[in-house]
Predict the 3D structure of the following.
Amino acid sequence: MKNTKYISWPVLGLMAFVNVIGFDDIIYNFKNQGLGVITTWVFLFALYVIPYGLMVGQLGSTFSKSGGGLSSWVRETSGDTLGYLTAWTYWAASIPYVVDTANSVVVAFGWLINGSNAMEQHMSNAMFALLTFLVFIIFIFLQNHIKNSLQVLNALGGGAMFIMTVLFVVLTVVNLTHGEHIASAPLHVSTFTPKIDLHFFSTLGLLIYATSGSELVAPYVTRMRHPKRDFPKSIIMLTVMAGFLTIFGSFSLGVFFNDHHLPADLKMNGSYYAFDFVGRHIGLGHSMMFLFSIAQLLYMFALLALLLDAMTRMLILDTGKRFMPKQLLKLNQNGRPINGYLLTSGLSGGILLMGVFLPDMNEIFNWLLNLNGIVSPYVTCWIFFAFMQVRKNSQKFHSDYVFIKNDRTAYLVALWCFIITFVAATFGILPQDVSPSSFTYWQELVMNIVTPGILLALGLIMPSIARAQRKKETQK
């Protein structure tokens, strides 16, 4: 009798949640839209996140033998070349993500050591970039010496972050029941209505960036006992949990922060401000802030280590010799693509160097974060592209789980998600946190165009280098 260990739908829902939403995601988008973001969250989850997750479920089930990765979905539906381009753009989009994560590690250490935002006030841009790059070097070293402990760290960090976010919401309610004043008062219907303007559209990419990631659990769909019945339950669970935390978390932030007068450094330091406020209001001093700093470090440690390994392995080991120069395919004694790590670190260092020329440390952090709101949604478009190809050829691609039985309807829903994602990514090119009339605005606008352009161009060059190497070898 075959001994199969199935994954239950609550476990898969929790796995998806850890990959999709975090407390910082709530902070970032509260800074962009204030309490109006609550309404945006509601519409986003109803019209985007649920269908997104269910499409991912069908793709993961359809291509389970290919590993369920995004590049394999596109490769199976549209050929090797587009599969490689997907893998490259996914990897390129991860570069700003790992830089932003390394930045967050440095910021978390600053709060843990100083108990305040003193590091921001005294540290130069060059030193901030240097410390961030040092984090990369340390984690590349760790990748070659730590294995199973990283999995434990991932579970520990993700669980700690979830508990801290729930705790923040609960403690806010406790404060309100004891007569706490709402900083954003008075509250009216207009308070929760987002202002639809150019700034609003420029922030949509960061919202999509915050809710993406459920594709990482797609390979586990086929390990469920009843995927047709249970996978939708997992996605509904994910949506309910993430919806609860984003909606009530945003409202809780409105209790402690006046959404009409938010701190300029809220994206970088808002999480620490929030937990410091809560701790002091319940008589625990700064202990809640220090507790969150530890949880943040655990979460970011795990995220950075796994990102560096997963993104590099997917690009180097999943695209094949046809597209990658042989130097990047080289593995060390531990079976790790060490030259791929070095390429990742080198490009990350280049992005850090660009950020040094921005006015201050806070602006570096904001720019890197907003860059994620551009490149990440563009890559997410590949998911909907692959799904549309599957539904156009539904007789060819079999799946145990099917999202919407009617192919035409399913295709139109995917097209809707594709358009929304592409438009949001394109508007995200406009800088969000600086005045349109300032020099920094135009500086960041150019950087937002040039940075993705360079990463994409490098991806187009790699196959040419690989071709030249093969030609040279055949001539010997």
